[in-house]
UniProtKB/TrEMBL annotation:
InterPro entries membership: WecG_TagA_CpsF
Keyword Secreted part of the UniProt annotation: no
Pfam families linked: Glyco_tran_WecG
The keyword Transferase is assigned to this record: yes
Keywords, ordered alphabetically: Glycosyltransferase, Transferase
Domain of life: Bacteria
This protein's name: Glycosyltransferase
The species this protein was found in: Cryobacterium zongtaii
GO MF, any single term: hexosyltransferase activity
Transmembrane regions listed in the UniProt entry: none
Length: 259
């Protein structure tokens, strides 16, 4: 039987920005919804989507399908909230920052014994991340960590990885493989295993302390992307130059009707 929080969340309005439909939520409700999805014991995939996500979804029909229902999408970016206000959504979308949601679920999941699996990044980052999470949240249950190959995995490798996750007893698999790879993997895991798979982006590096977050004032003003661009210009300039332009086109000129 579904919990009251899940019934409320699934019956609540969805708001569309570009080709992506977002759950109307807030940081606290998003955390509670994830924990209630765990209690359901069924595979679900969750995505923290930003302007770059929308730009990619506007370009790729395959990626749009990943983010289509029954995916749960939260708006991880101020610009999505700005567009929601511009389009006069009611209720309006509010930002749910992935790095904070990551920590909130670890914190609040302790009381119900939620078991976590960390998939992605490098062995060094995962080691620092696990140590940091155990320091911040004593008693947290981390039942596995895995740094997969950067190349595409074979069917056998996927099957072996799934067996490790299944045998760990994980309730949530946090997927930090970069956008859009992590979104495809979160969907695959949710369909293959009875886990809540969450595509979480750079939260691993932020929580581990291997990547510095933008100052709070920049986050508040929606300038986090510019901070990351300054720190990693060679890797990110194409994403933000072309991605932001495509986001604006998709978000502002796309129809608002939900499909």
């Amino acid at each position: 039987m579904k919990s009251d929080v899940i019934q409320q969340a699934e019956s609540a309005d969805l708001q569309r920005v570009g080709p992506v439909s977002f759950a109307v939520s807030d940081p606290q409700l998003a955390c509670r919804r994830i924990l209630d999805l765990v209690q359901e014991g069924q595979g679900r995939h969750v995505h923290l989507a930003n302007a770059y996500t929308i730009a990619l979804a506007d370009k790729s029909a395959e990626y749009r399908q990943v983010l289509a229902r029954p995916a749960v999408n939260f708006p991880d970016g101020k610009p999505i909230g700005w567009v929601s206000r511009l389009k006069r959504h009611s209720p309006r979308l509010r930002q749910v920052r992935g790095p904070q949601l990551f920590l909130d679920v670890f914190d609040q999941g302790r009381s119900s014994g939620v078991r976590h699996y960390l998939l992605g990044s490098t062995p060094d980052v995962l080691s620092q991340l696990e140590r940091r999470l155990r320091e911040l949240h004593p008693g947290v249950e981390i039942v596995g960590t895995e740094s997969p190959h950067f190349r595409p995995l074979s069917k056998t490798e996927y099957a072996e990885q799934d067996d490790r996750i299944r045998h760990s007893g994980a309730d949530i698999v946090w997927v930090g493989l970069g956008t859009p790879k992590q979104d495809f993997e979160a969907m695959r895991l949710a369909e293959s295993l009875p886990v809540v798979a969450i595509a979480i982006g750079a939260a691993f590096d932020f929580a581990a302390g291997t990547l510095r977050e933008a100052p709070r004032w920049m986050t508040t003003l929606g300038l986090e992307w510019s901070y990351r661009l300054i720190r990693e210009p060679k890797r990110l300039w194409r994403r933000y130059l072309f991605g932001n332009a495509r986001f604006l086109k998709a978000a502002i000129f796309a129809p608002t009707r939900l499909e």
